Amino acid sequence: MLVDSPPEQRAETAPAPPTRRAVRALGLLLSAAILVLVALASIAIGAKALTPDQVWHGLFHDTGTYGDVVVDERLARTVLGLLAGAALGLSGAVLQALTRNPLADPGLLGINAGASAAVVTALTYFGVTSPSGYVWFAFGGAAAVGALVWFLGGSRGATPVRLALAGTAISAALYGYLQAVMIMDDAALGKMRFWTVGSLASATNSTIVQVLPFLAAGTLLALVLARPLNAVAMGDDTARALGANLNRTRALAMLAATVLCGAATAACGPIVFVGLMVPHVVRSFTGPDLRWILPYATALSPVLLLGADVIGRVVARPSELQVGIVTAIIGGPVFIFLVRRRRTAQL
Amino acid sequence: MSGSGQPDTSGSAIKNTRRSTVNRLSAENVTLAYDQRVIAEQLSVEIPDSSFTVIVGPNACGKSTLLRALSRMLKPAEGRVLLDGQVIQSMPAKKVARTLGLLPQSSVAPDGITVADLVGRGRYPHQGILRQWSAADERVVQESMAQTGVAELADRYVDELSGGQRQRVWIAMALAQQTPLLLLDEPTTYLDIQHQIDVLDLCAELHETQGRTLVAVLHDLNHAARYATHLIALRGGRVIAEGAPNDIVTADLVEEVFGLRCQVIDDPETGTPLVVPAARKARLTAAS
Amino acid sequence: MKTNRVIRTPGGLSLGLDVRAVTVVVLLLLVALAAGVVLIGTGDFPISAGDVVKTLLGNGNAGQEFIVNELRLPRVLVGLLVGASLGLGGALFQAVTRNPLGSPDVLGLGQGATAGALVMIVLFSGNAAQVTVGALVGGLVTGLAIYLLAWKRGVHGYRLVLVGIGVSAIVTAINGYLLTVSDIVDAARAVVWMTGSLNGRDWDQVWPLLGLCAVLLPLVLANARGLRMMEMGDDVSNALGVRVERVRALLMVAAVLLTATATAAAGPVSFVALTAPQLARRLTRSPGPNLLPSLCMGAALLVTADWASQRAFGADQLPVGVVTGVLGGVYLLWLLVTERRAGRI
């Protein structure tokens, strides 16, 4: 009441003037360029550092030299990082628009917990031990929890608060189960303690092939939803008045977020904060228009994920820090900073 | 009020600044700011005793901020707010709460609380660990509910009430505080016209029959002109004019404060000033 | 439904009593004590409830006396005290943040204590006492960090919850890291600790908890009336003469101390702090922080859950935290469904 809304949230009532659109398009190109640089760095940096020449050689003139082998190994990891990062960022942006809560995160809807519970079940009761084997379980768990949250959250009458509460409740029950299994089964504990921190290290080509169709479909759906979600962001009544189909938009948005986040989690374990942080940072220079937020998030989220992965490889040489730990340690302070910067009236 | 009527025998300058005003509540050269955002600078305001003072002004002119400072919700960055000659921040919280009540713009009723319980919470500053609910508390709560016309709602849940009833309940809570000064931040917002008038009538009655000093922030200039005995017009954190509505409300003032061309005529009911905005066409031709 | 009674004395003293709340407190205390007696009787050498009471009163035979007083009584007392501390701490947090999700679980205090304990287990292979100290320090440091980070011209309830979630995520990542670098034996020990367990608790854990509760409870209750006013928002309570920031800071410190000590003694038993105040509130049907009912509810819940886990899975198979975690989640879901039916969310 006493504080005006910040300028960037007001800006979008009118279509952006041409110059601003040009700046944003340019920024998007720049983001893509940064992404390429980070991806190359991710191939070059590691236990054995490569020169740009060697990277180039390995990528385009693979003749089986030592450097080429290293490039091959890191390539899968980098590609997975690109895909998973983009998926997490997109699903975060979609969820934030859907719940109208700028602090929403895929973990909030229980997706991580669903994937974790499914993986521990696979390990303990079905004897699945290879990462490419439990990808399906993780994905199934994420999808099942996504559907359950949607249903318990009130399906057609879902509101942001209900969805968040349902997610928290289901996470709680599933983590109880997870801990019980880990206590009783040392083998499960041995695997799960690595899986639950989130890592790109176990990436293989087969994992990528497994999750790729889901990521592609989810990405497409999310991008199509940009316009209806823009309307939903105005509040239920206004959105209805603007002619948006609230229920369909919500259901599809939930589906897109679950597919994207579920597939990414299945491939590399629960990674927090990428989905929360990147859309936030992006919003500070694009404004609230999802037609810009989504592409930017797609380009910049992998930058964060791969960047964190590279940092994790460098700081703890000769071993490495899992990317999930690095993103949380970078992301946590950023999150707190964002919370502090927001004015109380908006919270 | 003890001591306020005694003549100042020492006559020293220091004593004078400590008691620079005869009114109970005043702000002296206050600078009001949220973080870095300065709302008002070097603002001085006196609230005449036993008046029904209304603060008006355009959006973001600092009227609610001023009210928050007067009720010590906001500490001035510079300057001071005096209550009975003392800097308000330096006084014991409960003592202030027995002298000055505030009805904030947005208040949350706890889930599942009844009207009587909510009004009863207004007795907090008069209570202690060993004096939790005296016969006087009970009586004052009944009186406050009767005055605001919510006595028959006493056992209802606050969540079930309509907006107008709820506002009356909150006013009853502020009344139960039994303070000679009562500050109200936009008490009529979100109410329909009938309930707006209801609430304002209630305020006028409190002022006239009980001699309480009321300070309210109001949006509607015509309501302000009709009910206030003292009007303070703010713009950009500065007082543009203050005084009785009949003396200060003119077409020029409204244009200066709100940037609106208008006529000021006599209210056919009360004779107070009535602001009639100029017709759209007239304003358009004036602008071009 | 008006259940308030007032006791007035000629000297101007007056005390307000909510009959329903008092009844709830008494009943919950009885439940907690009864569950405690049953729990003492449960184990490899079952003892009947009558014999347990007889032994507690000093009339049992030597064998039973050893089992009851040396082995099982301290464990039950730790359970009661931890449950009570968590229930009270949770009620304080939820009242201060004005948010039913504002429990120490969500705010990351449990995670902070876990980090302290893990550092001791994984990096120093510490003994039980060192782990307890580590957990205590971890919980207190985390609580302080959250408070300071959330401070910005006063602490706003919602900001406190969000900062807590952020801190919690960072600390969770650190805990995950510590688990990955530990060997499997330490990891197993750490996971049991992280779940919250009453196994093998003895008199050494009872005394600090009891002392702390004895000091903090009067302090908290003395400020309960201010806290009750704060339900109506900072502005209204300020206007009523409550020193909002001071009351809040004081009660936060008390809540952090209670939670950290309880966690140090039994591990981060999840959801007692979250559910106890909510359940208590539904029983008393009165607004307000319901501090004493929450405290009794926490004690009753934890001891009952411990008994349930021993009955269902056999003695010392699954720690009590698993039961409270699953129950808590189910309870939240139930809450969600009923609240939805009542049209409140």
From TrEMBL, chain A:
Gene Ontology molecular functions: transmembrane transporter activity
Transmembrane segments: 25-47, 75-95, 107-128, 134-152, 164-184, 208-230, 251-273, 293-311, 323-340
Membrane topology: Multi-pass membrane protein
Gene3D superfamilies documented for this protein: ABC transporter involved in vitamin B12 uptake, BtuC
Keywords: Cell membrane, Membrane, Transmembrane, Transmembrane helix, Transport
Record's keyword annotation contains Cell wall biogenesis/degradation: no
UniProt KW Transport keyword: yes
Compartments reported by the entry: Cell membrane
SUPFAM superfamilies, A to Z: ABC transporter involved in vitamin B12 uptake, BtuC (SSF81345)
Example GO biological process: siderophore-iron import into cell
GO cellular component terms given for this protein: plasma membrane
InterPro entries in alphabetical order: ABC_BtuC-like (IPR037294), ABC_transptr_permease_BtuC (IPR000522)
Sequence similarity: Belongs to the binding-protein-dependent transport system permease family. FecCD subfamily.
Protein name: Iron ABC transporter permease
Organism of derivation: Streptomyces diastatochromogenes
Lineage, highest ranks first: Bacteria, Bacillati, Actinomycetota, Actinomycetes, Kitasatosporales
Automatic annotation (TrEMBL), chain C:
GO molecular function, one term: transmembrane transporter activity
Transmembrane segment boundaries: 21-41, 76-94, 106-125, 131-150, 162-185, 205-222, 249-271, 320-337
One Pfam family named in its UniProt record: FecCD
Annotated Gene Ontology cellular component terms: plasma membrane
Statement: the UniProt record of this protein carries the keyword Membrane: yes
Compartments in which it is found: Cell membrane
Membrane topology category: Multi-pass membrane protein
Source species, domain of life: Bacteria
InterPro entries per record: ABC_BtuC-like (IPR037294), ABC_transptr_permease_BtuC (IPR000522)
The keyword Ribonucleoprotein belongs to this UniProt entry's keyword annotation: no
Main location: membrane
Keywords per UniProt: Cell membrane, Membrane, Transmembrane, Transmembrane helix, Transport
Entry's Gene Ontology BP terms: siderophore-iron import into cell
Gene3D superfamilies reported in the protein's UniProt record: ABC transporter involved in vitamin B12 uptake, BtuC (1.10.3470.10)
Similarity field: Belongs to the binding-protein-dependent transport system permease family. FecCD subfamily.
Protein name: Iron ABC transporter permease
